[in-house]
Amino acid sequence: MSIVIITGGSRGLGASAAFQCAKRGMGVILTYNSNPAAAAKVVAEIEAAGGKAVALPLDVSDTAGFAGFRAAVAEALDKTWGRNEFDALVNNAGYGLYAPIASVTEEDFDGLFRVHLKGPFFLTQALLPLMTHGGHIVNVTSATTRVAFSGVAPYAAFKGGLEVLTRYMAKEFGERQVRANAIAPGPIRTDLGGGLDDAFEAMLAGQTALGRVGEPDDVGCLIAGLLSEDNRWVNAQTIEVSGGYVI
What we know:
The chain is α/β, with parallel strands linked by helices. It has seven helices and seven strands; from the N terminus they run βαβαβαβαβαβααβ.
């Protein structure tokens, strides 16, 4: 059984990825930051469907906690699956901030940087000793790295940095047969950044070739699919999953 770690797996895209991975027979370690009840609900639903999952606390912005998290992962692997390695890491945890460049504070900037670029960098580094030879990494970025949308400059800039980092991960981890890819969701109906009101959703749907915004499972299914052996030759890529957003 393959085992995947999904950060931010208690809601939205992360929860969908957790369900889809479990549905395909993978064991799931999902993380949460401030809502253990939501994480426990995801675990319960996976277990009710016959899967195995564990929820662990993690603040992706706090690199000082990564050594402790690695120890917790090692314990969960041994206790739940009788293993000392995991197979895949999905760097998904994040949050949105909508503000024009002129009003972004240094605190806003640093917060987004810690979660969307620094966190994935050092979390991946911390977990590498536990990742199996031939493992997989999926970094969740954003279609805003391609389409400039007013009000998300720092968020998009750090997601763009994560796409570059993905290629370097693929290059440097290739000796261990670890592949790394990024997925870039377009507008999705989640609570990221406060969610979508009807007018905003209609505007975004009108800019999308398939005429709607995405659902979490549109992304969760892609993540689970990328982790499968069917896509073993896909490496160092950024794959946009947006239904044809602004083409």
